[in-house]
Amino acid sequence: MYMVHRNDIRPFIGEDGAVIRELAAPANAPVTSHSLAEIRHPPGTASQEHYHTVAEEVYYVTSGHGQIRVDGETRDLGPGDVVVIVPGQRHKVWSVGTEDLVLLVTCAPAYSVDEVVFTE
């Protein structure tokens, strides 16, 4: 068994201002086929629009509010929402309101910058 506490994982700041913790990924845990990250978007920040050539992504909103655009369709996000994004779908997420938008994000296969295409 491999077990780690979220607070023991050092976060890093993405180019878009998001605070990212790779909770379980090939680089830090004994997983090879998927990854799990916590991504925090502070108020007023947004991800860069992008798509994955291989990975499926699932977003689960744990707190905060925001919006997501997938292939041109925009929806509101809030706690408990689940978004499934398949390879090739362009997507972008924004934080709205006064608190961080916090997402648990899983990728299968595991997240790799090599298969991400930024479109803005």
- Computed over alpha carbons, the radius of gyration is 14 Å
Shape: globular
How many helices in DSSP terms? Answer: 0
* CA(first)-CA(last) distance: 40 Å
How many strands, what sense, and barrel or not for the largest sheet?
Answer: 6 strands, antiparallel
Which band does the percent of strand residues land in? over 45%
Query: What structural class results from the helix and strand content?
Result: mainly beta
Q: Could you name the CATH topology?
A: Jelly Rolls
Spatially, the strands of the biggest sheet line up as 1-2-3-10-5-8
The helicity comes to under 10%
Low-pLDDT stretches: none
Structure, described:
This protein has a 6-stranded antiparallel beta sheet, with no helix packed on it. A 3-stranded antiparallel beta sheet has the order 7-6-9, with no helix packed on it. A two-stranded antiparallel sheet has the order 4-11. The mean pLDDT is 96. The protein has no helices and 11 strands. It has strands at 12-13, 19-24, 35-41, 50-52, 56-63, 65-70, 73-77, 82-85, 91-96, 101-108, 116-118. It has one domain: Jelly Rolls, CATH 2.60.120.10. The chain starts with 11 loop residues before the first strand and ends with a strand. Strand 1 (12-13) and strand 2 (19-24) form a beta hairpin. The radius of gyration is 14 Å and the shape is globular. The protein is mostly beta strands and 120 residues long.
